[in-house]
Amino acid sequence: MNVGTQIKQSFDGWRLMSTPFVFGLLLLLTPILLMVLLSFWTQDYLDLDRTFTLANYKEVFSHPVFITLIKRSVVISLFVTAIYSYFGFPSCLLYFFLRRKKKGSTFIFNHHTFLDQLFAKDFSLEDYTRVQRRN
After folding, report:
1. Cα–Cα distance for residue pair 114/135, rounded to 1 Å
2. Which residues contact 123 (CB under 8 A, 6 or more apart)?
3. pLDDT at residue 8, rounded to an integer
4. Is the pTM of this model over 0.85?
């Protein structure tokens, strides 16, 4: 295989992956960007004033109730992240060593793979039988 063919195949692969990647990125970023944009505008019931202002942020950080809620949210998110990190890594190691020793312990995970294929990807019976034969 010559270099020109390899470059063409590489370009074809990137072109094939770029369309769903860009579409997914737009679906994820559009609501976030709209929310940030709307946070700089003010609203009076149904009237939306589109002039740039920091009034919403001034209101949020001037009320002690909002500050307390923000602090609680940050503490809860840090606590949950720490708990998941503390238990997540050892549970992954345990799963790895159990799977390596005994194939029967992965019964739940095999069906989880099946459900992922059923709902998240284009599913075909051929893919499922290939996954089952591999395990």
Report:
1. 12
2. 117
3. 78
4. no
